Amino acid sequence: MMVGAVAGTSPVLLGLLALVGSGAIFFAATHERMGRLLAFTDLERYKQDAGLQQMQALIAWGSGGIEGLGLGNGRQKMLYLPYAHTDFIFPMIGEELGLRVSLLVVFLFIVIIVCGIMIALHARDRFGLLLATGIVALLGLQAAVNIGVTTSLLPNKGLPLPFVSYGGSNLVACLFGIGLLLNIYRQGNLEPANKGRVALQLRVTPRI
Asked: What total number of domains does the chain contain?
């Protein structure tokens, strides 16, 4: 959707795509993930079932407080919080390192998104603009959904936290995206300067 909007796609087509996507998400949620939606609406009632992860995540946040319990001293990872090293690693950061480090992690993701947007706006061509926009949307949305789920602001989705969650394939994909962003930045900012330097050298070179 974001890439389509940047590319200049018709708002009518984007609206139809959003409508179809919303319908598909609603159908999947009501037929396959109804338990997670019910747990999201009444977490206390389903804290031993579908809402176990999010309830234990909230306990982790409460245990960590502002300062945290100390690196390695978290208790929820001791088989209390399922997938504490992958999908729900963000509450472990909050429990062990506290709210300040958790907010720092959020700030770093915001920095990545802002830098990615600036790279997209200064891309050399349209392809670089669209590619950078897609990478930023992918990383930003994945991080936002994971943080929203682990703080009980969104229903449980099962997405890892980019660059933080354990898992080789996700880390490789995220680093590959950052590499593409750096290449787009290099192509958009360094090459024009190099061309200008070469042109200046040709201009000042005496003719024989």
From this structure: 2
List CB contacts of 141: < 8 A, sequence separation 6 or more.
Answer: none
Contact residues for 34 (Cβ-Cβ < 8 A; gap 6+) = none
Both 100 and 193 in one domain: the answer is yes
Residue type, 12: V
pLDDT at 200: 41
Distance CA 187, CA 120 (A): 11
**Span 67-115, pLDDT tens digits:** 999 998 989 988 888 888 889 999 999 999 999 999 999 999 999 999 9
Quote the pLDDT of residue 95. 93
- Angstrom distance (rounded) from CA 72 to CA 16: 48
Cβ atoms of 137 and 128 closer than 8 Å? no
The tally of CA atoms less than 13 A away on the side-chain side of residue 9 is: 15
| Contact predicate 40/156, CB 8 Å | yes
- Nearest in space to 162 (alpha carbons), one of 114, 106, 117, 204: 106
Q: For residues 172 and 200, state if they share a domain.
A: yes
Sign of the alpha-carbon torsion through 40, 33, 148, 17: negative
51 and 144 together in one domain: yes
Per residue in 129-182, pLDDT (tens digit) is 999 999 999 999 999 999 999 998 888 888 899 999 988 888 999 999 999 999
Cα gap 2→14, rounded to integer Å: 9
- Domain containing 160 equals 33-204
Evaluate if pTM is beyond 0.70. yes
